[in-house]
Design a protein that fits this description.
Elements lengths: L4 E5 L3 E7 L13 E7 L1 H11 L5 E6 L4 H10 L4 E5 L5 E7 L3 E4 L8 H14 L5 E5 L10 H11 L3 E5 L3 H7 L5 E2 L3 H8 L6 H13 L4 E5 L5 E4 L4 E4 L14 H16 L2 H16 L7 H8 L7 E3 L2
Parallel strand pairs: 1-4, 1-8, 2-6, 4-5, 8-9, 9-10, 10-11
Antiparallel strand pairs: 2-3, 6-7, 11-12, 12-13, 13-14
Helix pairs in contact: 1-8, 4-5, 6-7, 8-9, 9-10
């Protein structure tokens, strides 16, 4: 029986993308391309898994006048979802892209405790042994920072696997519940551990602090430096491949890495293969306008054997 994947989005968004040849401050700028589509870390993961034809369900908290646009587009992408209510409008994030990328990220709407209780009940009624529950993204205003810890504790009680992609206090509390996997980037790892990170040794030292506190597995995304995966048994680094493609949009690359990693791990139970798949999917999205298509991922997979895995002692 296939594992089900549930992806919780407390902070979904609509991304409004404006692209320019050159963005000039204090001037009237006219974009050469405009796009608008559903987004947020959990939505990105669901999109990537859908493109890989991996069964998943997004659990989304939203409200407001822009919902119709948001869910119409999810329907077009054939993303399965379960909706719960937030108190205000779904947020719209602005991204200005020329040779640089500037993002304006809006705070998410509040969620009433009664709706969070409905979420917990839904998980109790639907999550089965060895399923995966992914909790990702920022915590909305007014929601307790322990919410991901509560989700992790419930997931563990259901004999399922909890994955957390967060940082700071919300991740610290969740770590106490021994999640199956966390996926910080270097900045998030630094914030969560309170460590200054200047090199690879600093990365490993900070990550091992979290392993000692109970995290089972850690996937650290490092942009164009690739990624590091570690647990109590292995520590591996994988660099990105030589695909001779241009960076288009880094938004969603880390989420795609996580989605690719999980899809391969669930299929093979092989961390090394999963790490390589994560690198491929994260890179493919960085080379795309949106989340990577299956066609691009399959093209890049032809070179997957060239990805170098370094075992770190």
């Amino acid at each position: 029986m296939a594992n089900n994947i549930y992806i919780i989005s407390l902070s979904p968004a609509i991304d409004y993308i404006l692209k320019f040849d050159e963005l000039k401050m204090n001037k009237t700028n006219r974009p050469n391309n405009v796009e608008m589509y559903p987004a947020g870390k959990g939505i990105h993961i669901s999109m990537l898994l859908n493109n890989l034809k991996v069964k998943n369900e997004s659990i989304i908290f939203s409200n407001g006048d822009f919902e119709k646009f948001f869910y119409k587009n999810l329907d077009l992408m054939k993303i399965k979802y379960k909706k719960f209510n937030s108190l205000g409008e779904i947020r719209i994030n602005l991204k200005l892209i020329d040779q640089n990328q500037t993002e304006c990220s809006v705070t998410s709407s509040e969620i009433e405790n009664s709706e969070l209780e409905k979420l917990m009940q839904y998980l109790k009624e639907n999550v089965s042994t060895n399923d995966y529950v992914i909790a990702t993204g920022s915590i909305p205003t007014g929601v307790n920072n322990k919410i991901y810890a509560q989700i992790a504790e419930l997931t563990n009680s259901l004999n399922a696997h909890c994955v957390i992609d967060a940082f700071g206090d919300s991740l610290k509390y969740a770590i106490e519940k021994r999640p199956f996997l966390i996926k910080p980037n270097i900045e998030e790892l630094s914030i969560t551990t309170g460590s200054e990170i200047k090199n690879q040794n600093d990365i490993l030292k900070a990550a091992k602090q979290l392993l000692d506190k109970g995290v089972q597995n850690i996937l650290i995304s490092m942009g164009d430096e690739g990624a590091i995966f570690l647990n109590k048994e292995i520590t591996q680094k994988c660099s990105i491949g030589n695909w001779n493609k241009q960076l288009v949009n880094a938004a969603g690359a880390g989420d795609s890495m996580l989605g690719g990693f999980l899809s391969e791990y669930i299929k093979t139970k092989d961390y090394t293969k999963a790490l390589k798949m994560g690198i491929v999917c994260g890179s493919a999205t960085a080379y795309s306008d949106k989340i990577a298509s299956l066609e691009l991922i399959e093209e890049m997979l032809l070179s997957m054997d060239s990805l170098k895995i370094i075992n770190i002692e």
